[in-house]
Amino acid sequence: MNNQKTKKLYEFRKVAILIAICLVFTILLPGVFLTWSNIRSILYSVSLTGIMICGATFAVLIGGIDRTVSGNAAVAGACCCSLLLSGDGSMGSTVLAILAGLGCGILSGLFHGLVLSRFDIPAFLMTLATNQVLYGIVQYITQNKLINVMNAKAFNTIGSARILGIPVPVYILLICFLVSYVVLNHTVYGRNLYSVGGNREASKLSGINCRKVICIAYMISGFMGALSGLILSSMNQQASATQATGYENDVLAAIVVGGISLRGGSGTLQGAMFGAFLIGIISNGLRLLGIDAIYHDLVKGVIIIAAIAFDMYSSYSMSGMKKRGPFRRKASSAE
Amino acid sequence: MAETLLEMKNIEKIFAHVHALDHVNFEICKGEVVSLLGENGAGKSTLIKILTGVYPKDGGEIFFEGKQVEIDNKHDAEKLGIAVIFQELSLIPTLSVTQNIMLGKEMSTLGMIHYSAEKKKIAELIQRYDFPLEADAIVETLSVAQRQMVEILKALSADAKLIIMDEPTASLSRKESEVLYKIINQLRDQGVSIIYISHRLEEVFNLADRIAILRDGKNVGLVDREEIVPGDVVKMMIGKRLSEATASRNLTLSDKEVVLEVKNLTHLGYYENVSFQVHAGEVLVLTGLVGSGRTEVLRSIFGADPYDSGQVIYRGEVLKKNRIKHTVSKGFGLIPEDRRTQGFAPLLSVTRNVAVTNYDALAHMGFVNRAKEDELGEAVVGMVDLRPANPNVAVGNLSGGNQQKVVLGKWLTRDLNVILIDEPTVGIDIGAKDEIYDFIEKMTMQGIAVLMVSSDIAEVLRVAHRIIVMKEGRVIREFHDGAVTQEQILLAQSGLKEQAKEEAQYE
Q1: d(CA B226, CA B336)
Q2: Which of A233, B137, B208, B236 is deepest in the core (most CB within 10 A)?
Q3: CA separation for the pair B34, B207 (Å, rounded)
């Protein structure tokens, strides 16, 4: 009872924080921040990381981490764009190129899932390294040049078209969010995912095929990363060798800020999405305030540290280890 | 007659009104091995902690080499030459043997370490005691036995006169144990005194010069090994208290159908040639010391671990190896050994934890029926009388007994045919223990076959219909008919088979 109340409060606090920050920016930036075009631009920028977050959340919830979201995006973009160039521009070849790009992400996810579910390698190190490998592959595909797909009209509409005044990527994000939400909260797979993240051995002894669950989580993450990379290429009408670099930091930051425990098994997709909007709104506000871009990372970093501290503290107190928080040494060494 | 090294007189220790030690006396001579025996909670570790300065004593005197001493902290104990080899070893895994031994007392000038001089010193020490060790080997590459040797060397290099070993062979193989016995005998010859704590009567009788026995915080004897037989030691450890009340149980061989049969099951290095049958509605208890292979057998039957040869047969059907899903679908359930690491996800609610084993009934086409799921949570709370009676509370916030009820609840909701239970009441208060025994009894009345692992003798006698004793991966004895006593089981566990048989005939 108590637990649920604090959880609800915790969720509500997130919305309150967002509203408060928006209020601050609205006051500081009258007539600039709270305009339709600025909201659209925030939504636009959040949609890319938002889609990646939908995927990476799966990897974090099983107790892993996926730093390859950016690499997957880059490979998918490069693969798709080079196929578009060699294709005949027909609808069929466009669809094929898109599917190939998405396939790259799923394959990468499958690889990570297979390795990480079988061997005791820290996911952080593994994906840190393989992200580098993925960018290596991108450099090979692009030969370090821009792949320009300005003429692929059908492909470019994904990134530029609007429906009812809202950019298409925002709809894609909405679909990804809804599907992920349903999977996480209403399917047996979602239940098993939380269970494996919460205690893998206990899940195994309850008859869950942990390896399969982990594998699928990384495949979803790979797919979403690739999808986001395709949208990015479509927005820019090109693929580059450095496409989406650094996105993985924003994605993981948003996930942690959103209250998903890096130990796995706890946290919500809504929370992660809150993190995405928090970071998106703060970057947008700082830019509009005319604050030099050099300081943006600094401010974002401080916010992330604060959020991680908050996350650790609250999850410690929820896991029943009340007396000894992570920041306090044992009060009395001799009992 | 050897000179007395340590004498503890009328030692008292009181924890919150409980007399943990009540006028306990203890002594050890130079170059002597004294074994300290007693059941869990008898006061062995409290006595050791007073001797090493972890706890202050509430009364009594300690004499070391004839002089009265006060041991207020670890440092005092070290200065006197008292060293402890703990069960959990305290070495730094990434450093070398030499670095570990010299830790805190490095040979250096101006902060620069003379590593080669240190290494030479340690190499000499190793040679003197003839240990199978290299001075510059990294500790994490060593076996548990070798790490123990490093600990012993560390004590010796600090000129220890008294070494305390707390269950040193608990995680050693037979061969490794023998090397340790040799080392202990060698140390004794060199005049080092050793307090040896162990549950294995067999090795106590091989090693000790004298045996000190504690029961309920009181001395019940300090006797020469030659003057006593294992049977008497066990009697002294248990005392009258238990042997009167629950000390014996009448076992009966069930005539119901065989539900689970294990045939010549072997997993090399863990257990060998284990065979038994479990009948419907019967509780078969596997007992034995820690490391005797009981848990491993249980896990292999369930499909959590592989095995090399043999068969697990459920109602005439040979079960697939290493397939938990398969065994679960046949109506098997497992209450694992350590509920914290194997039983539940601490951050998830009771409902989510118990639902994990039930989604075949709670979901349709992969989608969870959340109403049914919540119903199940409520049902389990009622079924196991969970406190607080709230299915939404995170399991990590519950007490140990209630956590175990949740783990039980995972399986109670299914149609079970066989339940495998591993040490279900460790760290649980007495009230919750009784409730868990009641559940086991209820399950047998429903015809469920129960295979349980337990080291708690009182528990074994309370629930068992039949008892199998394992030692070093083998079944060494089965009790299936007539009365069985605590003593018989304890003796059988220690591997003192002959006497156990004699006693059985005698009864």
Answers
A1: 42
A2: A233
A3: 9
Contacts of B347 in chain A (CB under 8 A): 198, 261, 265-266, 315, 318-319
Quick: pLDDT tens for B320-365: 988 999 999 999 999 998 888 899 998 899 999 999 999 988 988 8
Over range A206-233, report the average pLDDT: 94
Rounded Cα gap, residues A239 and A232, in angstroms: 8
Residue A331 lies in a domain: no
The distance from CA B119 to its chain's CA centroid, rounded to whole angstroms, is 37
Q: pLDDT by residue (tens digit) across B268-305? A: 988 999 999 999 999 999 998 777 889 999 999 999 99
Question: Buried (b) or exposed (e) across B143-172, using 16+ Cβ within 10 A?
Answer: eebbbbbbbbbbbbeeebbbbbbbbbbeeb
Q: Are B34 and B51 in contact (CB under 8 A)?
A: no
User: Could you say which of B345, B346, B352 has the minimum Cβ distance to residue A320?
Assistant: B346
What's the mean pLDDT when you consider all of chain B?
85
The answer to whether residue A181 is domain-embedded is yes
Dig out the tokens for A146 from the structure: 């821009």
Degrees to nearest 5, angle at CA A315 with A314 and A319 = 125
User: Hey, are the CB atoms on B368 and A3 less than 8 Å from each other?
Assistant: no
pLDDT in tens, B6-64: 999 999 888 766 778 888 999 999 999 999 988 766 788 889 889 988 888 888 999 99
Residue A324 resides in a domain: no
Q: What is the pTM of this model?
A: 0.75
Dihedral sign computed on CA atoms, order A135, A158, A113, A70: positive
The answer to whether residue A330 is domain-embedded is no
Q: Report residue B62: phi and psi, to 5°.
A: -120, 130
A217 pLDDT exceeds 70? yes
Residue A148 sits in a domain whose CATH number is 1.10.3470
SS3 letters across B82-105: EEEECCCCCCCCCCEHHHHHCCCC
Q: Which of A31 and B429 is assigned the larger pLDDT?
A: A31
pLDDT of residue B488: 81
Give the domain extent around A259. Answer: 9-317
Domain count, chain A: 1
Q: Nearest chain A residue to B390 by CA: give it.
A: A1
Identify the residue whose tokens are 């990476």.
A56
The H helix count followed by the E strand count for chain B is: 18, 26
Nearest CA to B172 among B194, B144, B195? B144
